[in-house]
Write a structure and sequence with these properties.
The chain is of the alpha+beta class. It is built from 7 helices and 2 strands, in the order αββαααααα. Helices cover 52% and strands 21% of the residues. The C terminus is likely disordered.
Length: 144
C-alpha cells in the first residue's frame, strides 16, 4: 500500500510540475504538442485541440513537448534516414538543409512540407516541422 501511495504522490508532483510548463507555454502563445505522465509506450492517449495527452507505462516522470525546444540544424533529418532514402530524397533534403543554414524558416517550412508525403509518420520530420512552427519557442522569443 505504501508503494502505491508513493507512486501516486510522485504522479501528483509530476502532474503539477509539468502543468507549470504547459500553462507557461500557453501563456506566451505556444501550443504544446504533447503532455504525458510517465515515460515509455503510452497506455492511453487522446488528442484534443492539437495536443496529445497521455499516460505512459513507466510512472517515473513525465514531459511536455514544446515546439522549438531544439532548433533544427542542417543535416539533422538526413542523419536519421537510411542511406537509400537519403539518396532518393537528396534534392529535397538539400533544399531543407540550405534553408536551415540560411535560417530562412519560411523556406525550411516549405521544404519540410514537401518531404512529409515522402516520409509519412517520420518522427524526426515531425519534430522538425514543430520546431519551425510559428508558435515555436525560438520564434516566440524572437518576437518578444
Amino acid at each position: 500500500m505504501s508503494v502505491g501511495l508513493a507512486i501516486l504522490g510522485l504522479a501528483v508532483l509530476v502532474l503539477l510540475h509539468e502543468a507549470g510548463h504547459f500553462f507557461a507555454a500557453r501563456a506566451v502563445g505556444m501550443t504544446p504538442r504533447k503532455f504525458y505522465l510517465g515515460f515509455g509506450p503510452p497506455l492511453v492517449k487522446r488528442v484534443r485541440n492539437g495536443v496529445e495527452y497521455g499516460i505512459a507505462a513507466l510512472p517515473l516522470g513525465g514531459y511536455v513537448k514544446i515546439p522549438g525546444m531544439h532548433r533544427p540544424a542542417a543535416g539533422d533529418l538526413r542523419q536519421g534516414l537510411p542511406p537509400e532514402t537519403q539518396q532518393r530524397l537528396a534534392p529535397q533534403l538539400d533544399a531543407l538543409d540550405d534553408a536551415l543554414r540560411r535560417e530562412d524558416e519560411p523556406a525550411a517550412r516549405t521544404a519540410a512540407g514537401r518531404l512529409e508525403p515522402e516520409l509519412p509518420g517520420n518522427r524526426q520530420l515531425q519534430e522538425l516541422v514543430w520546431a519551425l512552427a510559428p508558435d515555436a519557442l525560438d520564434t516566440i522569443c524572437q518576437l518578444g
